[in-house]
Structures are given as C-alpha cells and as structure tokens.
Amino acid sequence: MSLEFYHAPYSTADITKAVLTALQTPHKLHTLSFATKDTRKPEFLALNPNGQVPVIVHDNVPIFESAAITLYLGETFGVEKGLYPPPGPQRGEAMKWVIWSNVNFSRPLYVLMSAKGGGAFSKEEIDAANETLNNLLGTLTKGLEGKGFLLGSWSVVDIHVGSMMGYGTLVGMDTTEFPAVQAYVKRCEKKMEEAEKAAAAAK
Ligand SMILES: N[C@@H](CCC(=O)N[C@@H](CS)C(=O)NCC(=O)O)C(=O)O
Fold first, then answer.
1. Which pLDDT value is given to residue 102?
2. Ligand 1 centroid distance, CA of 38 (Å)
3. Of all helices (H) and strands (E), which one includes residue 120?
4. Which of 60, 102, 116, 135 has the most crowded CB, counting CB atoms within 10 A?
5. What mean pLDDT is predicted for residues 5-17?
6. By three-state DSSP, how is residue 14 classified?
7. What's the pLDDT tens digit per position in 89-136?
8. Is the CB of residue 175 below 6 angstroms from any atom belonging to ligand 1?
9. Dihedral through CA 139, CA 53, CA 193, CA 77, nearest 10?
10. Ligand 1: which of 6, 10, 52, 103 to mutate, most ligand atoms within 8 Å of CB?
11. What are the residue ranges of helices labelled H in the chain?
C-alpha cells in the first residue's frame, strides 16, 4: 500500500492532515508552498488540474476534493478503528454532513476571509454571507440536538465539520447565537489534540 499526501499549511488540506492523524495512517507527506506557486507546477497539476490542495494519491490513484478525501479515508482506514460507520444508514449520515459542510460553507466563508483581508466584497455581499452562515449554523445546531458529535460518537465527520467551524471562527463567522456549535467546536478541538498526542506516542 502506498499513500501520499499533498498538504500546504493553513489551508483546506489541514482537514485531511487532521483526518490522517486521527486514523494514524502511514503516508508520505509533500509540503507545498503557495508562495513558490507549487500548486501551479505541472507535476502537481497532473494530480489535480484544479491546482488545489489537499490531494492524496493512494496506490497511484490521485484523489482531490477535501470532502471526497475525508469520506474515502474514513471508509478505507476508519471503519475498523471505529472512526467511520460501516455501509448502511449511518454511513449515509456521515456523507450527508461532510458534503453538506463543503457545499454550503465554502462560499460564505470565502467571502468573510476575503473581506477580512481587504478583498473587494460589498457590504450587501458580506451581509448575505453572514445570513447564509446563520442559517447553516441553525441547521448544525439541530443536527447536534441530544448528541455530543454528529453521528453520536466521535468520528472523522467531526474532524471535517469541526475543523471547518474552527476555520470559520478564525475568519470572523459569528457563532455567539449558537452556543451548541461553540461547545461542539471545543469538544472537537479536544479530541483532535488527544489524537495528535496518540499519534505522536505511536511513532
Ligand atoms: N473544494 C476544494 C477547495 C480546496 C482549496 O480551496 N484549496 C486552496 C487552499 S485553501 C488551494 O489549494 N489553493 C491553491 C492556490 O491558490 O494556489 C476542497 O475542498 O478540496
């Protein structure tokens, strides 16, 4: 088995890094830099024509898109470890939350991130992004009702969604009206810290 991982610090690829850490899956790490335009180099574009990280290459097959990677790593390496559900309705739920988060949060968080960096978004566009985020955070709050984690117990789904919520907070997503989401992000961060310690101890 060969597994390679193309990562760049402070990017969407951090989600994949956290998933691989929790799964303790051995892999070869390639650290890319946006400053030196590594994602525009022909050898990288051959793996992902979109020119974006994360990418994994499993037994010579390149896989891009962070949601696809989380689900693939979960089903390939996570089931035996109890970090991803076997085929069945709970797996459907796992797919639902990971894909939902990528499809819906990416654009409004991009608007907030760009606006924070002085990007050219109007007040109307920023207000619309915040309104969308409020609706999404309401949906997540409902999904967490009566549960500590989205599938009941800690799984790679929480690594994916929790990391995205943590990133959202960094770029200015307002979660003050959503205490259940705030508490969830804290729980996910604690679990991820524990996973990092366990991975370091296993080396
Ligand atoms: N939809 C993609 C988005 C990935 C993405 O936006 N990656 C950014 C970093 S956060 C990137 O690699 N950008 C490359 C560049 O700007 O050169 C995913 O979820 O994997």
1. 98
2. 12
3. none
4. 102
5. 97
6. helix
7. 999 999 999 999 999 999 999 999 999 888 889 999 999 999 999 999
8. no
9. 90
10. 52
11. 13-23, 42-45, 66-73, 89-116, 123-143, 156-170, 179-202
Q: Is 34 in the pocket of ligand 1 (CB under 6 A)?
A: yes
Report the DSSP beta bridge partners of residue 30.
6
* β-bridge partners, 61: 58
By the 10 Å C-beta count (0-12 exposed, 13-18 middle, 19+ buried), 56 is classed as buried
Domains of the chain: 3-82 (3.40.30.10), 89-196 (1.20.1050.10)
Closest C-alpha residue for ligand 1 atom 14: 52
* pLDDT band, very low/low/confident/very high, at 78 (cuts 50, 70, 90): very high
Residues 6 or more apart whose CB falls under 8 angstroms from that of 33 comprise: 8
